[in-house]
Each structure stands twice: as C-alpha cells, then as structure tokens.
Amino acid sequence: MRGTALWRMLPLIPRDVVLTLLHAYRATVSHAYGDVCRYYPTCSAYAVGAVQQHGAVKGAGLAAWRILRCHPWAAGGVDDVPPSRHFHFELTPHGFVVPPRKD
Length: 103
Hints:
The protein has a domain at 15-26 and 34-82. α2 (13-27) runs antiparallel to α4. The strands form two sheets. A two-stranded parallel sheet has the order 1-2. It has a two-stranded antiparallel sheet with strand order 3-4. A hairpin with a 5-residue loop joins β3 (90-91) and β4. The protein is mainly alpha-helical. It has helices spanning 3-9, 13-27, 29-33, 43-54, 56-69, and strands at 39-40, 77-78, 90-91, 97-98. The chain is 51% helix and 8% strand. The protein is elongated, with a radius of gyration of 15 Å. It starts with a helix and ends in a 5-residue tail after the last strand.
C-alpha cells in the first residue's frame, strides 16, 4: 500500500471499526432474535447502511433515531437510509468502506 493510499484510508478507520461491531452484533445477538423488526430493512441492517453512507458519528445517530422509532405501536414499513451526497467510496464484499480505486 502506497503512502497516499494509507492517508486516504485513515479517515475510514472509525467507520470500519463501527461496522465490525455491527457485523458481530448481527451475527450473534440479532441472529438469536430472529425477524422481529417492524421495518425493512431491519434496524441492524439500517445501522450498517447508515454507517456506510454517513460515517461513524452521523450513521450512529441515524441508527439511534431509527431504534427510537421502532416500538410496538409503530406502523413500520420500508424505511431506507437517506443517501449521502458525499459518499464517494467503495464497499468490500463484506461491507467495509474503502477509498475508491484509481485505475
């Protein structure tokens, strides 16, 4: 990895750390609960998409707001992550965010 690529990767580290935690949660706790979410995508999938699109801080805030809206009296339905105008990265097959390739 060249020096410039490393510098481009540094700002993405907090985002990918949060994504690692979310993937661990989805593989253990969320998997044990089953399909109980009133919304599509599920709250944990929404959190992954929010962090991917908006970063660790804003994505966590969007995910927290979604969890607050998910209660027994919620109507539910389709609730996609609002797209970020500033998202110019690529996703790995496992959903981690990496800088765009400069081919």
